[in-house]
Each structure stands twice: as C-alpha cells, then as structure tokens.
TrEMBL record:
Domain of life the protein comes from: Eukaryota
An example Gene Ontology molecular-function term: RNA binding
Species of provenance: Alexandrium andersonii
Pfam families reported for this sequence: KH_1
Source lineage: Eukaryota, Sar, Alveolata, Dinophyceae, Gonyaulacales
K Homology domain mapped to chain residues: 39-114
Disordered as annotated region, ranges: 1-24
Protein name per the record: K Homology domain-containing protein
Length: 197
C-alpha cells in the first residue's frame, strides 16, 4: 500500500468545474449530466450492501468527498436495482462525468473501498461491462495491460457481463480503467450504440 496516491492521478486542467449553478441538486455537486457524461460510458461496479454503506458514509459525507476529490459523479443505485443474476442484496455503484474524472473516480472509489476498516475490505472488484467487451481477446488485453486476473460471468438476457477483477488494488484499478477506455472506444466508434438502455 502507499505506492499509488489518488493525488498522483490528478490531471486537473486549469479551473475545476466549480461553476455549478447554486440550485443544482445537493447530492450531485457535478450535476446529473456532466459534460461528455454519456450513461452508456459510466463505469459500473457491483458491491455488497455494507461496502455501499461505507462508500456513502454518514449522511452522504463520504460519497460527497469522493465526488469532490475526483470530479466524477458517483451514484449508488437503490437496493434491487441490479441486473438479473446478481445477488439482489448487492448494489450497483455508477461513476459518470468527463472521461478523466471517471478514471480518477474509479481510482478513488476502489482505493477507498480497499481501505475499509479491517473487517471486510473485498479483495476483488466486480465490474459490469458491455457484453462485447467480455470476449476472450478483450479480457486478454485488459489482463496484459493491468496484471489483474479476470473472470467473466455471463448474465443471461442482459447486455452486460459481470467481470471479477482479482489482484492487487493497483492491478484492479488499472484493469477497471482499461475497461473504461474500451467502453469509451466502442461507444465512440459505434460498435456499442450510445443510446440503448
């Protein structure tokens, strides 16, 4: 631990987006539809209920802090809003916003989860990725880039697959960021329609 600090990944261009109108909703300081924020390109993670509670924190303080530190919009979906085949008690965490903010959001959220009090910081990361990215050559690419082991579970009747990322926290962060880059690429080049949902 201690090799990667969230501040190492802070590529903040000049002014940070602090020009939000005052009437923007209290929970999402970066707004619901940030610039370049396409819901199809959100990073999505599946976490246990207690991990979701840790991410949100007392009165939502922790999630606000994570959003401010990354510039990303971080949202924990309601209980029950999980794909078929995923445990109904698990929760989905979505990270949206500009591409660089999403990359940083992934790093900050995964490292925050990794630093959970001793009890049960998970040693694996579950990420939902478009089915097109669960093909063998895509998984090999992410493995080569990150060093993380990746197990894929198909979710029948659903357009995303559940990937389990295994390895050090650094490897898991790199793997998730690589998946995010590929999601961005397949949406941009039209392989994955941007507006299906």
């Amino acid at each position: 631990r201690g090799k990667l600090q969230p501040s190492d990944f802070r590529w903040r261009p000049g002014a940070t987006p602090s020009v939000m109108p005052m009437n923007s909703e209290p929970m999402g300081p970066r707004g619901m539809a940030p610039m370049g924020g396409n819901p199809r390109t959100h990073a999505k993670f599946v976490v246990a209920t207690q991990v979701a509670g840790w991410i949100i924190g007392k009165q939502g303080r922790h999630i606000r802090e994570l959003q401010e530190n990354s510039g990303a919009h971080i949202q924990v979906l309601k209980e029950g809003e999980v794909p078929p085949g995923v445990s109904p008690t698990d929760r989905v965490v979505e990270i949206g916003g500009r591409f660089d903010a999403r990359c940083e959001g992934i790093q900050i959220v995964l490292m925050a989860v990794d630093s959970m009090p001793a009890l049960q910081a998970p040693r694996e990361t579950l990420m939902l990725v478009p089915k097109v990215l669960s093909a063998d050559h895509e998984i090999k690419d992410v493995h080569m880039m990150s060093g993380a082991e990746i197990e894929v579970r198909d979710l029948p009747g659903y357009d995303e697959a559940l990937c389990t990322l295994l390895g050090t926290i650094e490897a898991r962060v790199k793997a998730a960021q690589r998946f995010l880059t590929r999601i961005e690429e397949v949406v941009t080049d039209g392989t994955l329609p941007a507006d299906t949902g």
